[in-house]
Amino acid sequence: MKCFYHPQLDAVGTCAQCHKMACRHCIEDIGGSLLCMSCLSIRQHQAELEEQSIEQVAIQRTRNRIRWGSWIVGIFRDSFRRQKP
Ligand SMILES: [Zn+2]
Ligand SMILES: [Zn+2]
């Protein structure tokens, strides 16, 4: 069998994701399962997207914390002022 991406090269394995035959240039062992280059790039893209969404959640949480923090500080400031004659 020849590589799906290089018809002139012999395949060394089958992609665990799309089951295409691929040569040693086009396939990589990722955690014990072979993945071809196109599936690898898809997987990397998905990982990047997940990372971005995690980052956005973290930013949102920090913003919420700042909002709550200033709200609580405001309450304390008001009650402190009220106690003063
Ligand atoms: Zn694949
Ligand atoms: Zn190839």
Which strand order does the major sheet show? 1-2
Shape: rod-shaped
N-to-C terminal Cα separation, in Å?
91 Å
Give start-end ranges of low-pLDDT stretches: none
What's the average pLDDT?
Answer: 92
Strand and helix order: EEEEH
- Percent strand: 5-15%
Put the structure in a nutshell.
The chain has 85 residues and is of the alpha+beta class. Helix content is 55%, strand content 14%. The N and C termini lie far apart (91 Å).
Write the layout of secondary structure elements.
Layout: E1 13-14, E2 21-22, E3 27-30, E4 33-36, H1 37-83
Antiparallel strand pairs: 1-2, 3-4
The structure holds zinc ion (2 copies).
Notes on the protein architecture:
The structure is a single chain. This protein is α+β, with helices and mostly antiparallel strands. It has one domain. 55% of the residues lie in helices and 14% in strands. The protein is built from 1 helix and 4 strands. The protein has one helix at 37-83, and strands at 13-14, 21-22, 27-30, 33-36. Strands 1-2 form a two-stranded antiparallel sheet. Strand 3 and strand 4 (33-36) form a beta hairpin. The longest helix is centred in the last third of the chain and has 47 residues, at 37-83. The model has no long low-confidence stretch (mean pLDDT 92). Bound molecules: zinc ion (2 copies).
